[in-house]
Amino acid sequence: KNEVEQSPQNLTAQEGEFITINCSYSVGISALHWLQQHPGGGIVSLFMLSSGKKKHGRLIATINIQEKHSSLHITASHPRDSAVYICAGEGTASKLTFGTGTRLQVTL
Amino acid sequence: DTGVSQDPRHKITKRGQNVTFRCDPISEHNRLYWYRQTLGQGPEFLTYFQNEAQLEKSRLLSDRFSAERPKGSFSTLEIQRTEQGDSAMYLCASSSRNRDDTQYFGPGTRLTVL
Q: How confident is the model at residue B98 (pLDDT cuts 50, 70, 90)?
């Protein structure tokens, strides 16, 4: 069992749909990261959370420390949101343990 | 462009050859990380530097792998006697403990071992 697990692995949505990606972790972490990876490999950090909720544009990330669970929501999804979304737990020395990613495809 | 650069972007080599990759972090960042990502998987931690000191190495980093950050700026990752199982994307990230500690990732070096 991976220390950080995501679901679903693959997700297809139509433009405009509300999207939720889930992340559960089984290890102690100081923060939970959400990252976006586009084809070709480039990774961009979206959020770093240690509690509560953060919002940036159409993206919302929440974390429940007691349940060791985080969610990434995308409102009014758009084809340009198509990417792989990865959650990662931050441990000692800010070392990240990554989930396997959720591949999102948003169609017109 | 995150400000972290990696060179080369692609490397094809024959089994048994040595390869070296370079990472140039954002200049004021004191932390530098190397990760490896195989197809369909999330990245895996390899090693971490704070300034020039290598503070942690993963068990994934066999004795064929060595990393350096001699002046606390750029870093190199060398793989000796490459094996087909070393084929992966090698990612570098940097962060500053004095700021928000967000890791900024380079574009990666894709290694193919034939």
A: low
